[in-house]
Structures are given as C-alpha cells and as structure tokens.
Amino acid sequence: MRRILVIKMTALGDVVAALPHMEQICRTYAGGEIWLLTSPEAKGLFRHHPFFRVQTINRDSFFGKEGVLPTIQWVRSMGFDRIFDLQGNKVSYRICKWSKSPERIGTQPNPAYTKSAPGKWMRTIKQNVAQRLNMTLEAGGIPPATQPGPLYTSAEDIQAAERFMSLHELEEKRFAVVHAGSSPEWLSKRWPKENFAQLVEMFELFGIPCVVTGSHVEQDLNRYITENAGVNATGVLSLRQLYVLAREALFAVSNDSAPMHLFSQAGIPVFAFFGPTNYRWSHGFGQIANVLKSDVACGQCFKPECPPGKKHACMRSLTPELVLGKIIERLGESGKIVKNGE
C-alpha cells in the first residue's frame, strides 16, 4: 500500500481553490494511505473526507507544537512514497527537501523536488492557480482536474442548510449568495458596502433574495447591507454548510476571498470583484467569464490598502448598474432572471 502526502497549508481560500486537484490525487491513490498537511484553520473542511488523514502545521513556529521542525520530523518518520507539494513556498520546500521521500512533485523547478511543473510560477503571469496545479499533477502522471470540488459534508451539514432555506423561504435556484467581506488585512479587495446594499435591493425586484454571508468580523458590514433587503446570515452557517447552501443557489456575488472559491467549488456562477489583485491568477475554478473588473491604470497594485489619492477607483468604477447588467447578460438569456411582473 502506497503512502502519499499532499501539502497545502496557507490561506483558507488557497486551500479551497485546490480541492479539485486534491480530489484527483485521492482518486488516483484511493487504495493507499493518503495524508493532507494543512493549516489548523482548514482542518474542519476535511472532517468528513473519505480519503484524507489530516495533519496540521503551525507555519509561524519552528520548534513549537506542530511547528516546522516537528513537522519535518513527522514527515521523515512516515516514510511517504510520494509527496505532492501544492503549496510551493519556503516551508514546503524544506519539508520536501528533508522528507526522505523518493518522489517529490512540486509547482515549479526546485532542488527539493524530483519532478515539477515547468517554468517559474509568478503572480505576474497570466496563468490561473488551477492551471498551475494541473501542471503539477501532470508532472506526477495524474490527469488534470476538470470539475470543481467536491467538499465532503455530513448529514448534519445538509440538514442545517435545509433548515436555513426553509426558515427564510428560499427556493432552489431562486436565490443568490453574497459575500461582501475579505480578509481584514486586505480591505482594498472590498467592493463598497453601499454598492452591495444597492445590488441586493435590485435583485429583490427580480424576486431573487440574497443571502449575505460572513463571519463575526463582517457583522457590522452585513447589518448595513441587509438593512433594507436581503437575509443576514452572518455566523449562522459553517463553511461546509455554506457550501451545501451555495449548491442550491442560482449564483453568487463575492469579493476575492475564501468564500468566492467555496462558491466556485459548489458549481454555480460566481461573479467576483477584482481590483488590486490579479484576476487571471486568482479567479475561482472555471469562473473567468464571470470576473467583475475595471481597467483603471492603477489596478492590480497588490496593495492591501488603496492610496488615498486613488480613491479606490478599481472598485468604485464598477457601479451596481454595471454589475447587474453583467449578471443579466450572463444569466438572463437562459430565462433565469426575470423582473417581477414581466
């Protein structure tokens, strides 16, 4: 029986974005022992995974519990036959280099790997993360991922989502999910809250209620957005339960964030805002046609806070009317969006 290790351990959104590629690895080695090395924040996503055994790492500690050195020692002791490093940073390089594993597959050429995707992987290139991870799979002899997800859930997760839909009288494929937040360290990714509030009200006119999602850090933001329309779901559903809910939605609207990737893995259209970050790099799985962006000169600056003189032009130039028009253009022709009374 082969023993396989998959490494993906940074931001939650990055972990979610790699779900299709993890699935390909798991399906290939279904008869083996497959481990995932990930962040503590992401561990709950894999609680019901049928293949993965999960080990967590504290990347901010070298000697401490679950720190880098104990993790390297654990990997060496496990004697993995193959390691798929879907991360590609300094920590994962070290883990692979000292692993003693005979086969180590990475996202780009590095002495830590025995095989890798060709060429250096940079944020400035016009390649989505999903494409790069597919190249990594192919370097290891695994077919590329072509379908989103899945995120494995429990009966309790499904029941929680169903109760939420029943409580708020949400009909299958007749509501939208909205995420107006982003990492607090990346406020520049956020479309203005007044625009979100206006867009939610607009969709009410089409008979499409919006479920506005988020954690406790977005409670004030979501309270503002749902003051006149929409369902405030702040802190109500876990990420697995939100995934179940999103599968029943008609579409999603989101900033560049972990929920954006979660909605994409649910297999629905995700209309996502991109201003300071590279949409080619970061758009959700299969969602390039649904990207919402402007072509201002200062866009893709990769600055967590917009300089005052720029007035957040990359986001503010995307008006609610423009966004509504884009969504109707993509979904209206199929008859999925029809204004009330028409």
TrEMBL record:
The keyword Transferase applies. It holds the Pfam family Glyco_transf_9. GO terms for cellular component: cytosol. Gene3D superfamilies: Glycogen Phosphorylase B. GO terms for biological process: lipopolysaccharide core region biosynthetic process. GO terms for molecular function: ADP-heptose-lipopolysaccharide heptosyltransferase activity. InterPro entries: Glyco_trans_9, LPS_LOS_Heptosyltrfase. The keyword Transferase applies. Keywords: Glycosyltransferase, Transferase. SUPFAM superfamilies: UDP-Glycosyltransferase/glycogen phosphorylase (SSF53756). This is Heptosyltransferase-2. The lineage of its organism: Bacteria, Pseudomonadati, Thermodesulfobacteriota, Desulfobacteria, Desulfobacterales.
